Amino acid sequence: MMVLISYDVAVTSTGGARRLRRIAKECQNYGQRVQYSVFECVVDPGQWARLKHSLETIMDAELDSLRYYYLGKNYRNRVEHVGANPSRDVDDPLII
Predict the structure, then answer these.
(1) Which among 26, 41, 69, 75 could disulfide-bond with 2, CB atoms 3.0 to 4.6 Å apart, if both were Cys?
(2) CATH topology for 2-72?
(3) What are 65's strand-pairing partners?
(4) Distance between CA 15 and CA 90 in Å, rounded?
(5) How far apart are CA 3 and CA 42, in angstroms?
(6) For 32-60, how does the pLDDT look when each residue is reduced to its tens digit (9 = 90+)?
(7) What span, in angstroms and rounded, lies between the C-alpha atoms of 74 and 17?
(8) Residue 46, burial from CB neighbour count under 10 angstroms (0-12, 13-18, 19+)
(9) 91 φ, ψ to 5°?
(10) Is 91 part of any known ligand binding site?
(11) Beta strand spans in the chain (E)
């Protein structure tokens, strides 16, 4: 399933910049950045449980926010991109 994750971290607070980096890095482990604080993650239920738990452990619930948009398995029909920096199709082969 695809989950769109957006976040807002209070970087002016103590530890805010570190939390921002840690949240971004954790999201990058599971998906691709499509905007500065927005990631598309294609995950199975186990991966999703680990990622969500990790993000909610990193964040400060008093200052930061996370939003999850569940796009499901048929996400291709629900995502439209216009403009610069098109994202890659996560189901395409990855050649390193």
Answers:
(1) 75
(2) Alpha-Beta Plaits (3.30.70)
(3) 8
(4) 32
(5) 6
(6) 999 999 999 999 999 999 999 999 999 99
(7) 35
(8) exposed
(9) -95, -5
(10) no
(11) 2-8, 31-35, 38-42, 65-72
Query: Which residue's structure tokens are 């002016």?
Result: 12
Question: DSSP label at 94?
Answer: -
User: Domains of the chain: which residue ranges?
Assistant: 2-72
Which of 27-36, 57-66, 86-95 shows the lowest mean pLDDT across its residues? Answer: 86-95
For residue 42, give the amino acid letter.
V
Q: Are residues 69 and 80 in contact, defined by beta-carbon separation less than 8 angstroms?
A: no
**Model pTM score:** 0.81
Q: Which residues contact 11 (CB under 8 A, 6 or more apart)?
A: 17, 20
Could you tell me how far CA 1 lies from the centroid of its own chain? 13
Q: Which of 6, 73, 5 is nearest to 45 (CA)?
A: 73
- Which pair of structure tokens corresponds to residue 80? 């439209």
